[in-house]
Amino acid sequence: MPASMLIFAPSFAGTALGIGVAVIVGMRRSGPAWRWMVLLGIAVAWWCAGQTFWILADTPDAALRVNQVQYVGVQFAPLLWLLVALAQTGRRRWLRPSRVAPLLVVPLITLALAFSYRLDQPNWLWSGFHVDAGSLVPRATYGPWFKVFVIHNYALFLAGCVLLGSHYVQSPHYRLQFWVTSVIPALLLGMNVSFVTGYWPSPLDPTPLGFAVGFALLGWALLRHRLLDLRPLGRSIAFDSLGQGVLIVDAQQRIVDLNDAASRLLRRGVATLLGRPLASVLPGLDPDAVSGGQTELALAAHGQVGLRLQVGVAPIRAERGGAAPGLVLTLHDVTRERAAQQALLDLQRRLEDANRELERVAHTDMLTGLANRRLLLARLEMEFSRARRHGTPLALLLIDLDRFKQVNDTRGHLVGDAVLRTTGAALRELTRPEDIPARYGGEELALLLTDTGADGARTAALRVWQQLRAIEHEDPAAGSTFRVSCCIGVALLDLTDSHANDLIARADAALYAAKAGGRDCVMLSLEGVLEREPPPVIEVAVA
User: Fold this and answer.
1) Residue 311 DSSP one-character state
2) How far is CA 429 from the centre of its chain?
3) Angle at the Cα of 455 (from 453 to 457), degrees rounded to 5?
4) Who has the most CB within 10 Å: 147, 285, 343, 478?
């Protein structure tokens, strides 16, 4: 890989992995921190993408514009990391707007300074931008506010690492979570610190590289170990933070407890649901019939038309035997899944229709609507093999419109096209469902007759000849009609034929003989001779 491309690899990887993690988490929507994790992935991708354009900047003005846009991700990524940590560790009260708002002061001031900066008017954030000759990347010089926002961002990021580390280090079962969410991010933070302080040996910012490594591990942990789902929380936090709704009902099937997820699914407050009969909340559910299993409900009451819930029912076991004192019901919203399944089925049907249409177009002559040459040859090969295998007859007709070039030359190609369309339609009406009418090429048509011997082929050829030559074609420009005769070459399957091309060759030879013999006739290749219809019969040995 060229060195010029290597400098872009970390930022490209960081951008792709940031988006990938956001997509994975957004699709799963599991855990209390999934929304903040999605935003964090977007912010990191934004940061890394900005770094790509920063490297490409070749003027101070370009470097400034890129840095202004990039700082949106730079400012909010550390804050979002802290919010992920707060949500993941169950500190929901700290996520209230009144407590998050003070943390936005420094980022907002920084963004205001960034977007108000002018190259000729240094401010507290930046004092200048320059591009050194021969340098791979531009450089920025910083003002006093830069230290403020850097320290602020580092503090937010470290706070998130400490929260997650202290949360997961309590249990040996969460060592993976401990390393992925605290130790590794802290080490990567050190890379950024060394760059900002000037100790990093390269002029390239290693932060995108750190993000690429960190988010690669994060994505692996999400896919392989469901990182955000594994949380050593207390009973109340675990119960309230479950992604699934949970209802606890007593022996009289009254609701005695529920979590926040159930309240959100049922769109009723916890207080209004406690003590209510289960039948009034989930009408149509028979817990006794579902006990130990699960069923699906469509809620139509209370404005819940279209909401589909997957309900699992499990009895609460008594400590010393006896009847179950109650039931645990799990509620899972499958509305989107069912809609997605239906959409997938609809899409599958549309794809099948599209495939059929593509197949039809691929095997249909667009002018005449007949089978094209490709389909004719494919069917001929198949029918030839079948006829040879079972000893059944097979006939091929090649049809040529007499002096068709004169029609195009004297009446125009539009009239010629109309002649071909009309002729094709007539040929299609004259054939059986099992026969294959096709456009062989130019003004040549073909008709493959299955299970047809000499007499049937002769009769079919004469009928086609009579009908085609009797058609009155219109010439709008001349205000008149005209007829176009045709000649037909007929060949029958012979036991000596080794390939379908042998049948084509004899039909073509018969057609050539018909043209040479005055056109407007049918020439049949029968047992080594050519027979002309209508009489008189002219027999010519096949070469």
Assistant:
1) E
2) 43
3) 65
4) 285
Chain position carrying tokens 């909010």: 76
Tokens representing 150?
A: 């850097």
| CA gap 341, 304 in Å, rounded | 20
Q: What CATH architecture does domain 3-229 belong to? A: Up-down Bundle (1.20)
Residue indicated by tokens 């096709």: 438
Are the C-beta atoms of residues 10 and 212 closer than 8 Å to each other?
Answer: yes
* Rounded-to-integer distance, Cα 541 and Cα 191, Å: 92
Token code pair at residue 277: 């009969």
What element of type H or E holds 296? strand 294-299
Place of tokens 């040549």: 444
The helix/strand/coil state of 415 is helix
List the beta strands (DSSP E) in 32-152. 126-130, 139-142
Structure tokens at 521: 């006739």
Nearest-angstrom CA–CA distance, 462 and 522: 7
Domain ranges of the chain: 3-229, 242-337, 364-541
Largest separation between any pair of C-alpha atoms in the chain: 110
The Cα 72–Cα 78 span in angstroms is: 11
Query: Distance between CA 80 and CA 68 in Å, rounded?
Result: 19
Closest CA to 490 of 512, 506, 470: 506
pLDDT digits (tens, 9 = 90+) for 182-192: 666 766 777 77
CA atoms within 13 A of residue 295's CA, in its CB half-sphere: 16
- pTM of the predicted model, to two decimals? 0.43
Architecture of the domain delimited by 242-337:
2-Layer Sandwich (3.30)
CA distances from 301 to 304, 338, 364 (A): 6, 19, 54
Q: Sign of the CA dihedral 401, 403, 408, 410? A: negative
Give yes or no for a contact between 122 and 128, defined as CB atoms under 8 angstroms apart. yes
Dihedral, CA atoms, 16, 20, 21, 26, nearest 10 degrees?
140
**Class at the top of the CATH hierarchy for domain 364-541:** alpha beta
pLDDT at residue number 343: 86
**R_g over Cα of the chain:** 40
Our measurement of the distance from residue 38's CA atom to the centroid of its chain's CA atoms, rounded to an integer in Å, reads: 21
Query: The tokens 């940590």 sit on which residue?
Result: 85
SS3 482: strand
Per-residue pLDDT at 306 = 67
CA dihedral 371, 374, 379, 384 (to 10 degrees): 130
Q: Residues 2-24: pLDDT tens digits?
A: 445 566 677 777 778 778 878 88
The pLDDT value given to residue 234: 38
CA 369, 375, 379, 384: dihedral to nearest 10 degrees?
Answer: 120
3-class DSSP state of 126: strand
Among candidates 536, 537, 486, which has minimal Cα distance to 511?
Answer: 486
Nearest to 227 by CA among 159, 158, 179, 172: 179
11 phi/psi in degrees, rounded to 5: -70, -40
d(CA 434, CA 413): 32
